[in-house]
């Protein structure tokens, strides 16, 4: 009986993976044929998905510690520690030796990065679409340090609202596992301009994107947000480098992570504001 259950479980997973792959192919073919959905439509779909607290898949996508995917090892904690180590290496490389007194974490999720970075800060601002996620992040920060946490809930359609609610300058702008979820590559320019406006002169940003290898299956999907959210927006490395420069930031380095325990094709950009 146990063997039969295991076989059925394997078959079920295989069928689901095949169905997901087939759906992705169909959506990409439609996009390639010109049937892209508008940025406003995708922004509305994104807002509906992230603002509506859901089940375990939603919690996993939001990087809540309580999500099932983080049950069996220290992956949740390692997310933040790995990014903190990356930020430290980058700071040494560019001679960024000022204190990280004020930090903005754009798309803070359930706090996997905040618990690593907040103890180094005097003020920590978490930005997210979900009020429930912000509450979870605040609790995680409070469990590890006394750094004051400010949670800012935004609407996908109006990320610039943050600029009316907090006062620059900030020392460090963090953004992990967000750019692949945004409605379009063009929307990314809005976030980069926000980062530039929030940072003080000489401030730094560590921003992660998903990069495209040039194949049709790794290009921006631009359709059916809910079923393909982690592939919605991708960039080539030179494309994002040039976009950041056009938005007033100076790129210094990029680190590629072809695959890790969460997904694949990650690129981490270290940037500063002149």
Overview of this protein structure:
With about 270 residues, the protein is α/β, with parallel strands linked by helices. The chain is globular, with a radius of gyration of 19 Å. The longest helix is centred in the first third of the chain and has 31 residues, at about 1-30. Helices cover about 40% and strands about 20% of the residues.
Q: What fraction, in percent, of the residue positions are helical?
A: 40-55%
Runs with pLDDT <50, length 5+? none
- What does the average pLDDT come to? 92
Number of strands: 7
Q: Treating each run of at least 4 consecutive H or I residues as one helix, how many helices?
A: 8
Q: At CATH's second level, what is the architecture of the largest domain?
A: 3-Layer(aba) Sandwich
Inertia-based shape = globular
Return the CATH class of the largest domain: Alpha Beta
Rg, Å, rounded: 19 Å
How are the strands of the largest sheet arranged?
3-2-1-4-5-7-6
Do you know the CATH topology of the largest domain?
Rossmann fold
Strand content: 15-25%
Count up the domains: 2
Which structural category fits the helices and strands? Answer: alpha/beta
- Main β-sheet description: 7 strands, mixed
Order of helices and strands: HHHHEHEHEEHEHEE
Fourth CATH level, the homologous superfamily of the largest domain: Vaccinia Virus protein VP39
First-to-last CA distance = 65 Å
């Amino acid at each position: 009986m146990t063997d039969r259950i295991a076989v059925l479980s394997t078959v079920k997973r295989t069928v689901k993976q095949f169905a997901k792959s087939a759906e992705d192919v169909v959506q990409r073919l439609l996009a390639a044929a010109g049937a892209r959905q508008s940025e406003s439509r995708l922004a509305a779909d994104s807002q509906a998905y992230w603002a509506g607290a859901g089940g375990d898949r939603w919690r996993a996508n939001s990087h809540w510690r309580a999500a099932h995917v983080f049950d069996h090892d220290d992956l949740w904690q390692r997310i933040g520690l790995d990014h903190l180590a990356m930020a430290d290496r980058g700071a040494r490389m560019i001679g960024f030796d000022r204190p990280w007194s004020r930090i903005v974490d754009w798309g803070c999720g359930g706090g996997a990065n905040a618990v690593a970075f907040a103890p180094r800060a005097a003020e920590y601002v978490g930005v997210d679409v979900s009020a429930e996620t912000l509450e979870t992040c605040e609790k995680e920060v409070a469990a590890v340090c006394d750094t004051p946490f400010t949670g800012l809930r935004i609407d996908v359609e109006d990320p610039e609202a943050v600029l009316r609610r907090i006062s620059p300058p900030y020392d460090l702008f963090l953004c992990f596992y967000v750019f692949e979820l945004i409605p379009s590559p063009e929307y990314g320019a809005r976030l980069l301009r926000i980062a530039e406006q929030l940072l003080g002169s000489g401030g730094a940003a560590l921003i992660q994107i998903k990069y495209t290898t040039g194949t049709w299956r790794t290009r921006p999907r631009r359709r059916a947000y809910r079923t393909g959210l982690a592939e919605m927006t991708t960039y080539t490395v030179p494309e994002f480098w040039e976009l950041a420069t056009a938005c007033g930031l100076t790129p210094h380095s990029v680190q590629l992570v072809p695959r890790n325990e969460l997904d694949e094709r990650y690129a981490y950009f270290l940037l500063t504001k002149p």
